[in-house]
Amino acid sequence: MTLERWLDEADRVLIAAGAGLSAAAGYDYSDAERFAELFPVLHEKGLWARYQLIGLPLPPRLLWGYWSVHVDDIRFGEEPNPVYTRLRDLVGTRDHFVLTSNVDGLFERNGFDAERVWTPQGDYGRYQCETPCTRETWPSRPIIEAALATYDAATGEATAVPSCPRCGGEVFLNVHKGPEYVPDHYLPAGQRLRDWLDDGVLVIEIGAGYSTPGVIRSPVESVVRALPGARLVRINTAHAEVPEDLAGRALSVRADVAEVLA
Questions:
Q1: Which of 84, 119, 145, 224 would you label with 98, given CA atoms 20 to 30 Å apart?
Q2: Cα separation of 20 and 27, whole Å?
């Protein structure tokens, strides 16, 4: 199999992952059944999937009722995930790095070194001032746990609405949703990745489509173009096509990553 051969020949491996990887691992933002189970009040209001809540304005108590349950479910679980653990086993002892648009922390929770994971879109594990009044960001687990402690499933609301420790204003999770995003916490990892990249790298891109192509898909194509000895494996159920100019150095795998890893 070409993927296995390229892995054997690679000096280093860059895992580049989009939302499709987490969806394959069971964290699907379009899962209507799971949404109805976790968010009955919002379901009664006509909503049916988590992706509909991205950027949706809600009253503060309902907003933090939703986000506390969502983040607790998707970011702070302790159980290992079989898809991510298989991916970690595939990489093995090879020199590797991770670039991901996912903000769920699943790489570091499944054996990948947090120092070698760059999440340019942020992380549910942190929060920031919405103004922002400061470039500082803070761990989000305390505010998520506080909101959950006051969460009422009958109303969908949490009464413990967090505020900025500096100015007392509104806060939100430290994820890229607009110009207020503060990326500073993640910049060092981005620099480490740039310093680490080398001509012999094998890029394994998983589940990165066209919703935000400028975060994963386009950058990794540029990396492979810039490094004559680099190769790209693109694993995607719907958008596995590879650029014609990378012929011979790019492999299209139109399949679910869970099946590929199995």
A1: 145
A2: 9
- Same domain? For 175 and 249 the reply is no
Q: Do 176 and 187 share a domain, yes or no?
A: no
Instruction: Identify the residue whose tokens are 């540029």.
Output: 222
Residue ranges of the binding site: 129, 133, 164, 167
Q: How confident is the model at residue 262, as a pLDDT?
A: 80
Q: Are residues 261 and 226 in the same domain?
A: yes
- Residue numbers in the known binding site for Zn(2+) are 129, 133, 164, 167
Q: Which of 144, 163, 182 is the last residue of a domain?
A: 182
Compute the average pLDDT of residues 75-91: 92
ω into 142 cis (within 30 of 0): no
Q: How confident is the model at residue 56 (pLDDT cuts 50, 70, 90)?
A: confident
Nearest Cα neighbor of 243 from 215, 217, 204, 211 is 217
18 is written with which tokens? 């989009």
